[in-house]
Amino acid sequence: MTANPAWAAESAAAIPREATRHAEPARWLIPALAAGVVLVSILGLGLGAVAIAPGQVAAILAAPFGLDLPWSYSRLESSVLLNIRLPRVLLGALTGAGLSLGGAWMQALFRNPLADPGLIGVSSGAAAAAAAFTVLGGALPAGAVLFATWGLPAAAVIGGWLMALLVVRLASTGGRVRVDHMLLAGIAINTLAGAVIGLLMLIANDAQLREVAFWSFGSLGRADEPILLAVGLTAVPLILAGLLCAPWLNALLLGENEAALLGVPVERLKHLAIAFTCLAVGSSVAFTGLIGFVGLVAPHMVRLLIGSDHRRLLPAAALMGAILLPLADVLSRTVAAPVELPIGLVTALLGAPFFLGLLLREQRRQPS
Amino acid sequence: MISLDQVTCRRGGRAVVREATTLFARSEVTAVLGANGAGKSSLLRLASGEWTPHTGHVRWDVTPLARLERSELARRRAVVSQVLPAAFPCRVLDLVLLGRLPHRTTSRRTDTETSLRALDEVGLAGLAARSVETLSGGEHARVHLARALAQLSEARTAGDGALLLDEPTASLDPAHQHRILELARAIAGDGLAVIVVLHDVNLAAAYADRVILMREGGIAAVGTVRDALTPAALREVYSLDFTPVPTPSGTLFFVPTGHCHEPMIQQGGTP
């Protein structure tokens, strides 16, 4: 196993500077993103109708641990921060991380950096089920407190999962999931779900219509401790489990055949990626409503900075999602205060131009 | 080593390989030759375990290939495909490191050293830090060969493994074509079975221990260069006359001397 001497001179050739663009993955990125999560959290905790300074935020958060920091705060400030803003910031961070990871998994599965977790029908299924619950739910035997609190999210989760299952079934032949068929089936199912929502809106009354419209654009306003616990218990283990699949996802970038030749259980990996996305996206979307573009843009932004190695890409994408969504929430609460804009509107208004910018940048890089 | 026993494989209703029986032995370079659509790549896919035969058996020594654990097989045989996967933005070293994926027990440092050694073997150690997006077609092909070498590092030490190359010289200049096949010989020297699909009869004549000539999915001729590459067999396979000329080094050089005996046939259709 010696080097081929005929190639020795070639080996030692100097590396042009421009050729090392991806040479050293930005090692600073993950710590920088982690710092960004902290910074955005402080912003999210401090900004709003009751302004709370960063020092006060620190003091309020430290108090339950018996630490007495030298910043004074009122009981109202403490109550607003701990009961309203902290659950909201945490739900935003978990949902953002889940959406972004779902996007990263789908982008690896489709081998396309422009894939979105919604492609497999989980978001539109959840939206259709939530609309159906809102409009038709009154006919169901309501009244139980549990039903009132968890009925809508439960319907959304189940609707999302069922729709994704349908897409996967439609794209499966002979025990194999065909990714190209899954894309087409996803487009058809998403269109169908859109039509169902349209029909439901036709028969909805004004209050139901407002509820469906608001849910369609998303909000972190429902955040409370039980919801946070439900999302956290789903999202955190999924994020950790997803990270373990990173080397397999790397191999998948070579194509399904090449990955299989490297010993990767490709079919199992596809099912895992779909299941992870369903759980991560379905559980968070159920409580927040539809939030577009985070799942598409966050992993794509990170990939531009750090390359396609999923061992770095997945944690960085999770952190990026945990920055973007709470940041969008801060904007939605403050830009038109006291009116709160739906968060999905903010992510779409910012995400769409950003995405088009990326597209134009790619076109300029590859003019042919 | 890898043996095919009466193997038939159908794709899209057509038998792409029919009743093929052959053995790819350790320490040998076997060249697979044949016209376009003769079934060369299909034979390679069957030998690699990527496809399973409809009838017949493919074995690794005495074990049916299908019964070998997926990761175990990946530690012992590597494939460089004819159509190389499109480059995605990563470093050359990262792409080569993918070859270490089946070796889960080794450390990251060992994997990196092994991958750099593999890059050195294909003459691209200086490009380890480069983005794969900036590589030429030939460099890309060599990086994928390095990935296969990184995958087979332990197999080469143990002298038990197989390297399958599907037209590895297709995008290379003549000098690099010879270097790749010199490397294939060196790998066979480590005790591995090397199977290489080629279009150039003379590269096969210069580097192969054994040659398999394929025609319409079947094995038309098999043996050493002198036994298998006869003018009659070549004419049967390519419908073209070749004249073998001895070279000073003792190998044969095949000169195409005749005209094609058959009109160009469209695959699956009429002339």
Could you explain the architecture of this structure?
The complex is a heterodimer of chains A (368) and B (271). With 368 residues, chain A is an all-alpha fold. Chain A has a single domain, classed as ABC transporter involved in vitamin B12 uptake, BtuC (Orthogonal Bundle). Chain A contains 15 helices and 2 strands. Chain A has helices spanning 8-11, 29-46, 54-62, 75-109, 122-136, 145-170, 179-203, 206-217, 225-244, 246-252, 256-261, 266-288, 294-306, 310-334, 343-365, and strands spanning 172-173, 176-177. Chain B is of the alpha/beta class and 271 residues long. Chain B has a single domain (2-256), classed as P-loop containing nucleotide triphosphate hydrolases (Rossmann fold), CATH 3.40.50. Chain B contains 10 helices and 12 strands. Chain B has helices at residues 40-48, 70-76, 92-97, 108-121, 137-151, 153-158, 174-189, 201-207, 225-228, 231-238, and strands at 2-11, 14-24, 29-34, 55-60, 63-64, 77-80, 162-166, 193-197, 210-215, 218-223, 242-246, 252-256. Chain B has a 6-stranded mixed sheet with strand order 6-7-8-3-9-10, sandwiched between helices. Chain B has a 4-stranded antiparallel sheet with strand order 2-1-4-5, with helices on one face. In chain B, α4 (108-121) crosses α5. The interface between A and B is large, with 41 and 45 residues.
